[in-house]
Amino acid sequence: MSDTTRTYEATQQNNNLTAHDPLEKDFSHGNGFHLDGNMDSDQALRRIRTAGSISISPELFEKIYLSPQNKVSGDLRKTFGNPTPLALVGFLLSLSPLSCDLMGWRGAGGSGAAGTGAYYFFGGLLMVLGGVGEFIIGNTFPFVVFTSFGAFWLGFAATLQPLYNAWGAYSPNPAEPALGLTTVGFQSSF
């Protein structure tokens, strides 16, 4: 008899439980049981245990699910440095001033227009460079994440750049296009 057949039969016969303590998963027949506070932990675990469960070590879990093998040919990982910190620094150094502006810390405002340079060069440039570095060493997912966020920061900076006059269409007075920054239409669209 194979191991699979033995396991199946043991599961069907509930051999891992006592005869007067069946494993009942269908509570619709009215003769089932419920786990409650009056039951000790050993009895509760015995009632909900299944024969098909396995346990793995935390190290194996991390190796399988959190750090899967990435088959990359060549020695680029040994040649280049890790580009991830570059992209993360770009993200943090552009998000921090924007957060302060949007929360109005110490009188900040203007929808973050004062940080346009940080959005272009920290958020956009560093994140795109970090994403391209991830692409070179074969990390597809970080490449997509970092270049997508880099493109967001470049678009965000361009929206706040006076040259593009993105807020001018929302200004109630065409002679003063900067008034468009404070309108509800621009804020909602932005």
TrEMBL record:
Coiled-coil stretches noted in the UniProt entry, renumbered to this chain: none
Location relative to the cell: Membrane
The keyword Transcription belongs to this UniProt entry's keyword annotation: no
Cross-referenced PANTHER family: ACCUMULATION OF DYADS PROTEIN 2-RELATED, PROTEIN ALCS
Signal peptide: none
Protein's name in the database: Protein alcS
Family recorded in the similarity comment: Belongs to the acetate uptake transporter (AceTr) (TC 2.A.96) family.
Lineage of the species this protein comes from: Eukaryota, Fungi, Dikarya, Ascomycota, Pezizomycotina
Organism listed in the record: Cryomyces antarcticus
